[in-house]
Amino acid sequence: MKSKTKSSSELDANEFEEVLTLFFNALPDPIFVIDQTGFVIKQLGGNANEIYPFLYPFKDKLEGNNLSTLLPSHLFSTFMDTINKTINDDSLTCVDFEIANEGNILGIKNQWYQGRVFPLKQRRDDVRVVLWIAINITEQKLLELELKNLAEKDGLTGSYNRRYFTEVIQRSFLLYLRDKLPFCILMLDIDFFKAVNDNFGHDGGDKLLIALTDVFKDSIRDIDLLARYGGEEFIVLLPNTTTQKAMVVAERIRVATQQCNILHDEKSITVTVSIGVSEITVNDTSFENVTKRADIALYTAKTSGRNKVCIE
Ligand SMILES: Nc1nc2c(ncn2[C@@H]2O[C@H](COP(=O)(O)OP(=O)(O)OP(=O)(O)O)[C@@H](O)[C@H]2O)c(=O)[nH]1
């Protein structure tokens, strides 16, 4: 009987594995074989040190160790949740994660990765196993963050812009309809701002707007939302707040503004602010009813002498 002989173009299993290992090792993205306990069975590829700086410090320490000893606890949880989901669903799972790189020897800042995790049929000591490919997506993430920033923030002061504010107040209004969670609005307008520009130049005016943004932020809680509404007009959303408390916050902002003193070309600039306050009511049919009342209150503050807090 004629036995099957290997032709010169065929590889035996060992040779084939050798080629595959060479191939994987040449890949810039690291690939890990990890079991369901978080034990790293094998690491392949990941040779682009500049885009995989997280591998650099323990390049040779990954294999044979558990992720729990390699990753910070919050990342370890993310990895284990992803591995369990991949195995339970028996399908590809994708997860984005960020790795902090402070003090990294390569001087590279935080990096974002996407883990693409595939379930494998193989087991290690009866434990299921996955293939984890980590792809560096930092540039894409930074671009996304920059676009988000451009869409939501005001270029001069870094506070939120009117468009973002409108989105948030719309949601607050819907929450109010559902849960009756009250909220208040403060409409702020700097007094005689034109005179600041006239006396100190547009640069001086800009510098003041930036300084006042900090003053306003320092006077509100983290959950409150400050936005630049127009030129020298700002608006604050105070969630879960009723009129009485909103008046206290408005008064705090008014006093802090009066006390703010900035230097520009060795001259000091001081201003005051007028503030209109309003609270959502059961009769309101849109968030615009609330902002309209704050605007009317602001007008009253302006026409009754400025540097005042009024309510409507
Ligand atoms: N420097 C600077 N000025 C701005 C900016 N946006 C708007 N302004 C100026 O803000 C001034 C607003 O003037 P007005 O609307 O007359 O109001 P006001 O002088 O503050 O007077 P009252 O609001 O009535 O107290 C105008 O001179 C605008 O040019 C900005 O981004 N930077």
UniProtKB/TrEMBL annotation:
<feature type="domain" description="GGDEF">
    <location>
        <begin position="181"/>
        <end position="312"/>
    </location>
</feature>
<dbReference type="InterPro" id="IPR029787">
    <property type="entry name" value="Nucleotide_cyclase"/>
</dbReference>
<dbReference type="GO" id="GO:0043709">
    <property type="term" value="P:cell adhesion involved in single-species biofilm formation"/>
</dbReference>
<dbReference type="Pfam" id="PF00990">
    <property type="entry name" value="GGDEF"/>
</dbReference>
<protein>
    <recommendedName>
        <fullName>diguanylate cyclase</fullName>
        <ecNumber>2.7.7.65</ecNumber>
    </recommendedName>
</protein>
<dbReference type="GO" id="GO:0052621">
    <property type="term" value="F:diguanylate cyclase activity"/>
</dbReference>
<dbReference type="InterPro" id="IPR043128">
    <property type="entry name" value="Rev_trsase/Diguanyl_cyclase"/>
</dbReference>
<dbReference type="InterPro" id="IPR000160">
    <property type="entry name" value="GGDEF_dom"/>
</dbReference>
<dbReference type="GO" id="GO:1902201">
    <property type="term" value="P:negative regulation of bacterial-type flagellum-dependent cell motility"/>
</dbReference>
<dbReference type="GO" id="GO:0005886">
    <property type="term" value="C:plasma membrane"/>
</dbReference>
<dbReference type="InterPro" id="IPR050469">
    <property type="entry name" value="Diguanylate_Cyclase"/>
</dbReference>
